[in-house]
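Service request form, structural biology core

Requester: graduate student, group of Dr. S.
Request type: structure prediction, single chain
Budget code: on file
Notes: please return the result as structure tokens.

Sequence provided:
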Amino acid sequence: MASEEVGPFRVRPDGRSLSLSPHAWNKVANLLFLDSPAGVGFSYSNSSSGRRTGDKRTGNDAYKLLRGWFERFPQFKYRTFYIAGESYAAIEDHRDRNKGVNNPIINFKGFLLGNPLIDDFYDNIGTFEFWWNHGLVGDSTYAQLNESCPRDSFLFPSDDCYTALSSAYSEFGNFNPYAIYQSPYDQLATLNKAPLVILYIFQINILNQHILLY
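Core staff response, request fulfilled:
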């Protein structure tokens, strides 16, 4: 997120230098990125127990961190606050903890989700139909996916589902399945051999007068 989408910098093709993004959110926002749960990105734990995480604990840890962050930077208290995230962030525990609280420090108003993992069945059915309708997979592979995978988890597919997914990836060619209208890109050739990866990065964006958790 920070270096590819909403952040202020882009990595140049040489891999050694940066350029400014003309579409950076920090033009209208103060951005703070949080990698979560512990062990993801730059986040860490000093104990093995701290690395045993789950959806509920991840939500609780993020809430504790936010409360501490607002105490350290009180100028951001009471501003309108939003949570935003991608993929598995849709599963994390983001309960509104302000019920019954007057003038809450974390003034939670809503959340935004990009490419969210919400429901395995409908996510799978929609994904497979998208691939098939756009010519990324053939009829037989589409049928195999619908037969083997609809109720499987993207994180832990069954052997039959994994075989069907591998067949689908092999048919993609050098296209990025998340941006199929872009030109083929040679460096994406390994996509047709790679298993599906779920990104567990969770981030916080603090707007000038609002706050976003991304």
